[in-house]
Design a protein that fits this description.
Blueprint: H1 4-27, H2 34-41, H3 45-51, H4 55-79, H5 85-101, H6 103-115, H7 124-150, H8 160-179, H9 185-199
Helix pairs in contact: 1-2, 1-4, 1-6, 4-5, 4-7, 5-6, 5-7, 5-8, 5-9, 8-9
Amino acid sequence: MVTRTERDKDRKKQEIMDAAEKLFAEKGFSHVKMEEIAKEAEFTRKTLYAYFSHKEDLYRQVFLNIAIQRWNFLVEKMKVVENGIPRIRAFGEANYEYTIANPEHFKLIVHIDQKGIQPEAHDDIFQIKINNARKEIQQLLRDAYAFGQQQGNIRSDLNVQRNIVHLSISLRSMLNEIVLGYEEKEFYDEFLELFIEALKV
């Protein structure tokens, strides 16, 4: 049974993370100080550092929460459509839907893509959590490719794992153009269809 003290600690930690997410999204990781996060969360610096030893530690926890939320959304959208190419398309469409609804999350994810995580802020437990969280969506994609190949709809000469990486990175690039306001949905949809056409036999 969770004690009152534990609930209070969890609440404070979440309030700190919510404040950090807001400021990271508004100002960017490099322009946010721990003092600002403490002020936004209405806690003292001492309280903040009791939960997070440095800014990178806080950032990666915010990133992990966002990543899990996003992956769960994608999984839900993919599971309700037919396996094979329709499921791969659903992956692309769900990425767009989530990003448009949560552009601030996308910006935080892109920061990790570009800057990575500082070595001193990285640990095996964090990497394990990331790997475990994305297992289901990776398996859904692998199964979709395998099903399409078995049905004769997807090329059998593809390196599936590499192609999944190509798809994910490419969609991220397209979404960046959308979030920055350079392109519209049609631009994204055109690319998604081009990618899917290239998979077909």
